[in-house]
Write a structure and sequence with these properties.
12% helix; single chain; five-stranded mixed sheet; alpha+beta
């Protein structure tokens, strides 16, 4: 299946092909679709339906959860994970087994693919901690991270970038649980608040198979930062899409995002840094 348009029908079809998301897609279709306008459905707008301990159910005031031992909520990986759990028009899509996927700078494609995602530079700093051990550092855990480009497209799946695998990569945390990626500020496509997907694994060796993931989640950015970023050249469509969506109507963050809101520094000229503490039940 070649996913192009981020429409409701396309996303439900994509999610139904994922065994792990089938129940979530059906739950959303049967129980909540009536509340979501058909024109406002993004590329991965399913609701996982299960919020782990730590979901507050309220809008965040800016906390990243660094002082809490509540696990970050479990969320859907969406239709475009590229981790071997689904297919595009060419077959199974799995970057986790490709040479070069372990890298800190994810702006360019790898393993024979060429192309670099344009956009405002973004440094992503994550700290992995153990929710079962008073938020002690979860050293040497691995994270697979992916997100859309400035135009709202997902490499490997979206029209125009099916031959690219940029904005995807794996990093290993140090002994203190810290890791970082160099990327670009993601765009906003129709129906979803801007976000970044990630999966947590117990080690680099475990990260070669999606079956080993211990957490799948998403994080987002403060609205003020998004409005500032989207005033920059190249993000005009993102500004338009963002004006028609909110955290309250987003299918993932509407039940609360206090543990999924990154802390920001920087600016559109010099680039941004987003920092988030990710607590997992390790």
């Amino acid at each position: 299946m070649d996913v192009h348009g981020h429409s409701l029908a396309e996303d439900l079809e994509a999610m139904m092909r994922l065994a792990g998301d089938r129940r979530s897609a059906l739950r959303w279709l049967l129980a909540g679709a009536a509340a979501v306008p058909l024109a406002a459905c993004g590329g991965d707008g399913s609701v996982d339906g299960s919020v782990a301990s730590g979901g507050t159910g309220a809008a965040s005031s800016g906390t990243t959860g660094s002082g809490s031992c509540s696990a970050i909520p479990e969320e859907t990986g969406g239709p475009y994970p590229g981790n071997g759990t689904n297919s595009n028009a060419s077959g199974i899509v799995n970057v986790l087994t490709q040479a070069g996927v372990v890298r800190s700078d994810i702006r360019s494609s790898f393993n024979g693919a060429s192309g670099t995602a344009a956009g405002i530079p973004l440094t992503i700093k994550l700290k992995i901690v153990n929710a079962n051990a008073s938020c002690a550092a979860a050293g040497n855990f691995a994270v697979y991270l992916w997100h859309c480009d400035r135009e709202g497209r997902y490499s490997l799946y979206s029209q125009g970038v099916t031959d690219q695998n940029y904005l995807r990569g794996v990093q290993v945390a140090d002994a203190d649980g810290n890791l970082a990626f160099t990327s670009i500020f993601p765009g906003c496509y129709e129906g979803r608040m801007p976000h970044i997907h990630f999966e947590v694994y117990r080690s680099l060796a475990h990260s070669s198979s999606a079956a080993n993931r211990i957490k799948t989640s998403q994080f987002t950015f403060p609205l003020a930062t998004m409005n500032e970023a989207y005033a920059s050249p190249g993000y005009a469509s993102s500004a338009s899409n963002l004006s028609r969506i909110s955290f309250a109507t987003d299918n993932i963050f509407s039940d609360g995002y206090a543990l999924q809101l990154g802390s920001m520094s920087g600016n559109p000229t010099d680039g941004y840094v987003v920092t988030l503490t990710v607590a997992v039940a390790a």
